[in-house]
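Practice problem: predict the structure.
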Amino acid sequence: MTSPLVVETKELTKIYHGQVAVDKVSFTVTEGEIFGLLGPNGAGKTTIILMLLGLTEPSGGEARVFGIDPTRDSIKVKGLIGYMPENMGFYNDLNAIQTLRFVADLNNIPPKEAEQRIENALRTVGLEGEEKKKVGAYSRGMRQRLGLAELLVKKPKLAFLDEPTLGLDPDATNNMIELIETLAKQEGMTVILSSHYLEMVQKLCHRVGIMIKGKMVALGTLEELATEKFGMGDEEYTLEDIYMKYFREA
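Answer:
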């Protein structure tokens, strides 16, 4: 049985001041999938995410999130999704509990339920014992974990994670990978992950789309992409091997 579509784009295009940032990109993401968007800086990954969030309007093509046009009904889409940008923004004078209560209030979560969600989220992301410290005193890794805690409190059906491990040390990176797995498996979220960190994408993602100069030059499972480029399955090649092959040929 085919899983329901969560995201669908058809020739999605974005042009800024005459420059093509996203060039006729078509792909789908199904329910429960972890989908990886790969590509160098300026490839168009974040622009695609912003269009799916309804934060910028396409210049052409179509996008649907849970069957909804995010440009025409962005409020409805925002109620179903969560977004963790590359640089998390918080009120530095609030602590973690106050931050998550604010998120719960914005999403109309009843107070009693919100407190339970907040407690569970802080425990899951490993911020117990740090929850009363001002967020302004948090390390980057702690801020990233707090960003995931926001998603756990909101419980969106779809989560966008834009470079969630950027600037983290190896231990913090491994912790983040485990937390993302928790989002997908235990919470049942569909995840779209944009990252330069190919090892993480290889570990987490069911399928990947490789973006270069605004175009999606490859789309599929690791095995499918390895077979397409090298004539054999993924047991012989890493995602880095595959990515560099597409990058050099683009």
